[in-house]
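In response to a reviewer's request, we include the raw inputs and outputs for one of the modeled complexes. The two entities were modeled together in a single run.
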Amino acid sequence: MALVLSNLRETLFKLGPLILLVFICISEFHTQFYYWGIFTFNFQFIIIYYWILRDPDILGYGFVFICGFINDVVLSLPLGTSALSYLFVSLVAAYVRTATVRNSLFTDWFTFVVAIIIGNFIYFFLLNKFANADIKYTTLFYNSLFTFILYPFFWGLFEIYKKITFSRRND
Amino acid sequence: MSTSRDDFGIVIRSALLQRGAKQKFSLFVLILLSLFIFILDNSNLKPIKILRSIINDGIYRISAVSSSPIKFSGASKDFFVKHIFTYEENERLRKELEDLKSKNFQSSFLEAQNNELQNVLDLEKNSPYSVVNAKVILDKNSPFLNSVIINKGSNAGIKLGMPVLNEGYLAGRIVEVNFVSSRILLLNDLNSRIPVVVSPSGTQAILSGVGKREPSLEYLPDNFMLGEKESIVFTSGKDGVLFPGIAIGKVVLNDNKKLVKLFADPDQISFVSVALDQQEDSGAR
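The model returned the following structure tokens for the whole complex.
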């Protein structure tokens, strides 16, 4: 019984990032605040980029695809828009993982700029060309900027989370 | 130079095609699948629309359930804040009550006069619209979209473009209809454009969402000036979709921009009425 509970707890810990990503995509979790005027960020990009880069076994590409699909339905975007955007962020993360030997916060952070640019470019290109949605480029810029600025903060949180999960696995 | 290009090609190929120990699909396959779904969704084929409608209904329900902890925490916060400010609110309400008492005599007179005039015109005293009441089940904003999902769809007679009212004021219009759910595009969304008339001057304008709480008035005549009286914005019905005369908000000036403070606060919408039809003679009101 104790072994079953321990396994269950470990599985839940490992599923944490995936649960968080699904929850953000499907729930009313807001990353836009009117009161702060310009503050908006893309939490999904941060989660996907970090976990695909640092521990791809925790967040599979298939789940990234499904989360993008859910996000499109909830936000009423053409199906496949967010999925494509998230998968290209995953591609940059997978590229950086394959190309570099030793990762640090700074290499992760600065390569994340490329992921944000490509991810947002695909998102807005598809929305602009096919959904006839009006896009405010200042909002896009602030969204990208704050996503970039906040990355080290979440990087730190995820590192702590990873250490806890890893130490539990070794116990 | 060519070596670095080769290296780039090898790494990209590896990233696209490689699958980890627990990866069931490669990135390449999933990107192709996403593109295929995107093309299908944009093809506007009827079976695809029906399928999307079913998927929407299912995911909206799951989404409403998974959002309940967030809604509960928001409601708890409101509850505590309300209790903290009860004393101040009580004082304010007492003053308002005094004001209202004095206005009551005036309104009684106006009501009597109104009844008399209605009798003269022989109009029915009913609501100007036949409506379907609905509950907001999901309110998820993105930086580029301000819309809410309601729990009524084509099963309740809702159709695309119908006006949505909140406490009698225009809150938005229907932009997506599924069988048991619909999406309302709120007035402050970037994509929202509503033809309006500004009272009392009768000036025509377009109410455009700017992604912030207060939408702006566009295409006003150059000589438009705000009068001493409060300027109220109503739908003009010029688009042939929205009924004319629905109150929207009042004009406020902000940095020389003419914005509209909405009567139906887009952040506080919980229940709405979808106006299905306008009763006969209501245009005369």
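As requested, we also summarize the result in words. The longest helix of chain A spans residues 137-170. The mean pLDDT of chain A is 84.
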